[in-house]
Design brief:
Structural class: mainly alpha
Strand content: under 5%
CATH topology of the largest domain: 434 Repressor (Amino-terminal Domain)
Number of helices: 7
Order of helices and strands: HHHHHHH
Length: 120
Amino acid sequence: MAKRLEGLPKAFGQRLQQLRKNAGMTQDGLAQKASIDVKFVSDLEQGRRSPSFGVLQRLLEALDAEPFELFSFTIRKDPPRAKSGDDLVADFARLTDARTRSLAVDLLKSLIRWQRSSAE
């Protein structure tokens, strides 16, 4: 594995754990929903094992998540660069659930309508 990707299993595991906890699940609950062993879930979260595509699919279904949500993490060690508005929107889309994104879109639409009516 390329040196810059050495942290991939650990970063993936941390993201999996975050999504599991956000879904209000225990490791055992996720294991049952994804039809995998609880020890395997623990090993994934600790970065000790890697999932197959079949396991990834079952994890995504169990978490009711999209693939980008499971892989929205960084393993770079260089300092973060300043984010543009586009980067912030992309981060928001990756790091929030569908309901939160829908509420944010509704809020932005309301702000745009308010701004337009204030400009008239």
